[in-house]
Amino acid sequence: MKSTYYITTPIYYVNDVPHIGHAYTTLACDVIARFKRLDEYEVFFLTGTDEHGQKVEMAAKNNGVNPKEFVDKVSENFRNLLNCMNFSNDAFIRTTEEKHIKSCKKIWEKLLNNGNIYLDKYSGWYSVRDEAFFSETEIVDGKAPSGAPVEWVEEPSYFFNLSKWEQKLLKFYENNKDFISPETRRNEVISFVKSGLKDLSISRTSFSWGIKVPNDKNHIMYVWLDALTNYLSACEYSNEDNDEVFKKFWPADIHMVGKDIIRFHAVYWPAFLMAADLPLPKKVFAHGWWTNEGNKISKSSGNVIDPFQLVGKYGIDQIRYFLLREVPFGNDGDFSNSQLINRINSDLANSYGNLFQRVVSMIFKNCNETIPSKPKKFNQEDLMLINSIKNNLNYYRELIDKQNFDQYLKNIWIVISNANKYVDEQAPWALKKNNFERMEEVLFTLVETIRQISILLQPFIPNTAEKILEHIKIPHDKRKLKYVNFILRGNVKISIPKPLFPKI
Ligand code: ME8
């Protein structure tokens, strides 16, 4: 039986337009999901939209439509992003779906029956933009720590007994060192929990756009309890007739989030799950924050980077490559057009694109349009190149499991650069005149190296990797990771290649 792998993105608030930050999180998940599929896992890759709450209700009102009409329309923007960036998600969950509503009610009842919910009154600060409650001590200059405006709220509310879970959470972090990544976020979360957890308000009564609390029709569920539960709903938590999918995929292997929402995923979510007697996800990774040429990205500053426009201008694989190569995953990053153009020209066009172009053109011109057959022998230089990826497959697996995308790409680009050097040193054009057989060995070694590189690049730049593998006639069913260890047979006809990455 195949191993399974369940990976999730945050579900995005529909009131926003999808921007580069949303594309970034989903891209990271897409790369991991594609890699795991290549490594023969049965993958469940989930994304979706967060459609309830005060923020969305207000946005609908400002647009003069009822919330349901509004969310039906704007959640479409996030579905369009999937095509635009070539994302391979297996499911798209909306929190207005029936099966999600059922899941939320189910988890609420579980928490209630386990004695973890009680009715009281909330009085304190609330930030609609963050959809979060804040105590007096957290308020900075009259605002939430994120800079969002806050309002004073006093209303009856159900509470979750979060304080009871403080020690259990700390113990869980201690026993599961990889649960929160990277390390800085882990430390941040641990010190937050150590500073003392207060019970959490989990219902609201002053607006109505949300899921009704099962035992009290005057309350709607706090939007974060509703939103986090999507990870259960999507794998059929509330399907009473069939629990196969849930058993197969839950707990999730990784929740990928931005650092802004780590507290919800690494504190509240595991506490809710413990309290509901459900297994905990294996990892929460909180990546860094993109700014635009040094400035915070926001709709109000009008500097939102539109992924649809970027992809239209530069190409899907170019943007996918840039986002994961430019900034070590986990760190903040600054988006700059000039850096993007540099990466496209130097890494993609001059290095990888050029390697493919020159090797395939030489074969086309000099070897009767046919990749030479596998040589009888390889010399030391050939083997160095051919084995550099083969011998390190487990290292690449490890880099993906650590979400270390830039290192993965850097390593591959070292091989690309070595392959380009090898072309210069072996000078196949000179061999053509005096040692045709050696020229064939050299060209074979190069195509074999390109094959391995392209198998490993499929998760990152799927369209281009596919074009290359097609071009050198690697059958579809021989593109999985394990086939890196096989070797090309050669002796297949090829056509003249077109440039893969036009220079900008
Ligand atoms: O928080 N840089 O949704 P959201 C990097 N609905 N990533 C960014 C970014 C930026 N500048 N801006 C946004 C919510 N993101 C909740 C989630 S989950 C159960 C509920 C990404 O639409 C990043 O992943 O505000 C961040 O965590 C997420 O978008 C926030 O999306």
Walkthrough of the structure:
This protein is an alpha/beta fold and 504 residues long. Helices cover 48% and strands 15% of the residues. The protein has 19 helices and 16 strands. The protein has helices at 20-38, 54-62, 67-84, 98-113, 166-175, 183-194, 223-228, 230-233, 244-249, 262-275, 307-314, 316-326, 337-366, 380-390, 393-401, 405-426, 428-434, 436-457, 462-471, and strands spanning 4-13, 42-50, 91-94, 117-127, 132-134, 151-160, 180-181, 200-201, 203-204, 212-213, 216-221, 254-258, 284-287, 290-292, 295-296, 333-335. The strands form four sheets. Strands 3-2-1-12-13-7 form a six-stranded parallel beta sheet, with helices on both faces. A four-stranded antiparallel beta sheet has the order 5-4-6-8. A three-stranded antiparallel beta sheet has the order 9-11-10. Helix 5 (166-175) runs antiparallel to helix 6, helix 13 (337-366) packs across helix 16 and helix 14 (380-390) runs parallel beside helix 18 (436-457). It is elongated. Bound molecules: ligand ME8. The site of ligand ME8 has 20 residues, from strand 1, helix 1, helix 7 and strand 12.
